[in-house]
Amino acid sequence: MAAKRSYHHGDLRAALIAASFDQLADGGLPRFSVAAVARRLNVSSAAPYRHFPDRVHLLGAVSAVAAGDLRAAIETAAVEAGSDPAARLAAAAGAYVRYVARTGAGFSVIYAAELHDFPDEARREQTRALMTSLLDLGTATGVPSYQEAVLMVEATIAVAQGYTSLLADGFFARKAHSADAVADRATQAARSLAAPSRGAGS
Amino acid sequence: MAAKRSYHHGDLRAALIAASFDQLADGGLPRFSVAAVARRLNVSSAAPYRHFPDRVHLLGAVSAVAAGDLRAAIETAAVEAGSDPAARLAAAAGAYVRYVARTGAGFSVIYAAELHDFPDEARREQTRALMTSLLDLGTATGVPSYQEAVLMVEATIAVAQGYTSLLADGFFARKAHSADAVADRATQAARSLAAPSRGAGS
DNA sequence: GTCTATATCTAGATAGAC
DNA sequence: GTCTATCTAGATATAGAC
Q1: How many domains does chain A have?
Q2: Minimal Cα–Cα distance from A2 to chain B, Å?
């Protein structure tokens, strides 16, 4: 039956956050529970409450880490994409799909409605930095106004989130598409968003 | 206090499906439960089980209805969009956002992983017809191959699903965007996917 | 055809032992 | 710092009354 629970961890707080990512990657937000995370670590269901007062605070900590990691992944992808601003923004879409496929923690977790009434300054900082990175990529494309940059970033995020949702919901299951293949399609679709009637010049 | 439960319905089966849509629109799939649906109708929590053997069968029935309604909404939007094939496909994205914002039942419900092992022929029929409608819109755009039509339809669905997810997750909350405004953006973004600035399948 | 009542399960959260 | 034990609440599902 259940593995024995003689497990005393050195840094359970960090382990809980890491296990939360695994849990999210496995079953998504719907199946996320403090009890399930505790089970993953072979600790009692009460142990997490020594480190987080409740479920929302654990999710909030995960959200902050995810926002920071996602921002780093996007920055890296932009660097690898080269110098074309539109390609750099599109690469963010691909990085988003890869990150969420791997960790299960995308915008639906980072900006989860459950966390809206939850004023965690550290988390606010991370989410703000993430949005700033994205908006910087958007304004760099040379659209005529900030407003249009916002719209383009939103569209890029929407494409990435859309492919991510379809992947997570098993829409691509039959064809057995890998996360990387889907991420490449997201990048390509995002790239074509930037190139319609009004070009970026060059 | 709970309203009294003296309610005998004429067609509880249909009422359960309708109430399921309300429940999905309110709390999404995560908060969907047979008990919550029964509460909405002021019937006992046991009543639904006279009409559906279990939760999955209720969801399956909802899925079939949603697929049919969604297909009708997409067809109508295509007609209203006129004769340009790319505009007709893009209009499907807008119709999708509007339909899911209103009903809560999008692809994540229609193709919910919970239903994969659930062989309901009526539902299969509806979902197949929905995909056929979308693929017809895709092939009509005159892309050089069927494979590219599939990719373009997938991208269009992804855009629509992405805006839908962001809307449902409260991403647009602060700006208080209406569902119609978001649907218009989805339409516009989907429209730019079809722009031949860069070969979609190079 | 719908009700009441109930058995079982899982999750969130707390108290107190070690 | 983590455990066992326990309480509460809500969900699925079944049995049997009316």
Answers
A1: 1
A2: 26
